[in-house]
Design goal:
Blueprint lengths: L2 H21 L24 H5 L2 H15 L1 H4 L11 H23 L3 H26 L2 H27 L6 H20 L7 H19 L1 H5 L7 H22 L5
Helix pairs in contact: 1-8, 3-5, 3-11, 5-6, 6-7, 6-8, 7-8, 9-11
């Protein structure tokens, strides 16, 4: 299978998914979105577990930044062929840490205005990582060129959703495209294009943990009803934080493939 044909497969998927998403009617945010199962109040913190379960995002983000700024990551031929490849990852881990702060801020008093600051850093981190995958799997030049446009697309999708809510015409289509298209495209990229580094299994693991986290988000009340100890949304935060941890673990231990 030629390189051009593999790229064409990915482009066809992009056009199809984007076309379908934009051709359907506007998707409004469910009115009950902010009504989470666990609203218990401990330690003077409202919605305590949904707030505190964001701490792992901050920890993992700082771990990733600490490694990338350290001497090991700067050595050519170890975690990165070119030390300049660290910077997109540093951007990703910075916004993972900010996701922890933004999500905690939102869950302390859930509403659309605060949800903006929950979704914004996560969408930016998503698109930054997508650009990284393009760079490492398809073309470093393409990944570099697309990095900022994809980051702005992620941010713009959240701002557009928020403004549509302000004008009483909620539309989540672009935000959902930014959220879920990479979950289709990245596994396809991992299958179609040869790896530049070892530890591809960590990427599949990261995707699996994130998908499991999204399932728990949908099962928020069902999980909480199984004993009232913890909700699906709290577990969603904990499982979702495993995804950037596995990415951190990957870049720390991987080596270039000759």
């Amino acid at each position: 299978m030629s390189f051009r044909f593999r790229v064409a497969i990915l482009l066809v998927l992009t056009v199809l998914v984007t076309g379908v998403m934009l051709s359907i009617p506007s998707i409004e945010q469910p009115p009950k979105y902010h009504q989470f199962a666990d609203d218990r109040y401990f330690l003077g913190i409202p919605n305590t577990l949904n707030v505190l379960s964001n701490i792992p995002f901050v920890i993992v983000g700082m771990m990733g930044l600490g490694f990338l700024m350290g001497p090991t990551a700067k050595e050519p031929g170890r975690s990165f062929v070119d030390p300049a490849e660290r910077w997109p990852y540093a951007f990703f881990f910075l916004f993972i840490a900010l996701t922890g702060f933004g999500s905690a801020y939102y869950h302390a008093k859930p509403n659309n205005d605060r949800l903006l600051w929950d979704r914004l850093p996560l969408a930016i981190a998503f698109m930054a990582f997508f650009a990284i995958m393009i760079s490492e799997r398809i073309s470093r030049r393409a990944g570099t060129i697309l990095f900022w446009p994809l980051v702005f697309l992620g941010a713009g999708s959240v701002v557009y959703w928020h403004q549509s809510e302000v004008h009483q015409a909620g539309d989540m289509r672009i935000y959902l495209l930014v959220q879920f298209y990479p979950l289709l495209a990245i596994p396809l990229m991992l299958w179609l294009f040869p790896p530049k580094y070892t530890r591809t299994a960590d990427l599949f693991g990261a995707l699996a943990w994130y998908i499991a986290a999204k399932v728990l988000e949908w099962l928020d009340r069902w999980v909480y009803a199984r004993g009232g100890l913890v909700s699906g949304h709290t577990l969603k935060h904990l499982l979702a934080a495993v995804t950037p941890y596995l990415i951190y673990h990957m870049i720390k231990h991987r080596r270039p493939i000759e």
